[in-house]
Structures are given as C-alpha cells and as structure tokens.
Amino acid sequence: MNDSLRTLKDFFAAEAAYVTAGGPGKADFSGMAAHLHPDVVMYQAERACRTGVNGPGPPASSPSWRR
C-alpha cells in the first residue's frame, strides 16, 4: 500500500475512533490532528447536506452540486 493511501486510511480510522468516543467536546482530537498540517482549518456543518446513508448522493448534474 502506498504512503498516501495508508495515511488516508489511518486518518479515517482516527476519525471513526473520534466519533465513536463522542466527537466534539467529548473525545480526544489528537489522533486526527496528527494527520493534518498545523495550518489546516476545519469546520463542522450544523447538519449534513443530504439525509440518508444508503445509496449514492445526487448526481453531479443536480442543482445541489452546481453551486
């Protein structure tokens, strides 16, 4: 496995652990932070842009993706 893919998989594993542990205000962010550049800025949306977890999102031609 190449380094980029390993880093991405490690980041997603750290993210899953963070969310499972309670997320913002409850869990330790350092596992995720270890994979990010010190100058990165992340924002969390109040809610997901679409609902549901099954199936694909809207097609790229839909108004949601053209903004």
Biggest sheet character: none
Helix content: 25-40%
Bulk shape: globular
Helix count equals: 3
Radius of gyration: 15 Å
- Give the helix/strand class: mainly alpha
Poorly predicted runs of 5 or more residues: none
The total beta strand count reads 0
Q: What is the CA–CA distance across the termini?
A: 35 Å
- The proportion of residues in beta strands is under 5%
**SSE order, as H and E?**
HHH
> Which whole number gives the mean pLDDT?
79
Key terms:
67 residues; mainly alpha
Task: Tell me about this structure.
The structure is a single chain. By secondary structure, this protein is mainly alpha-helical. It has a domain at 1-45. 39% of the residues lie in helices and 0% in strands. The protein has helices at residues 3-20, 30-33, 63-66. The longest helix has 18 residues, at 3-20. The termini are far apart.
Show the helix and strand layout.
Layout: H1 3-20, H2 30-33, H3 63-66
In short:
With 67 residues, the protein is mostly helical. The chain has a domain at 1-45. Helices cover 39% and strands 0% of the residues.
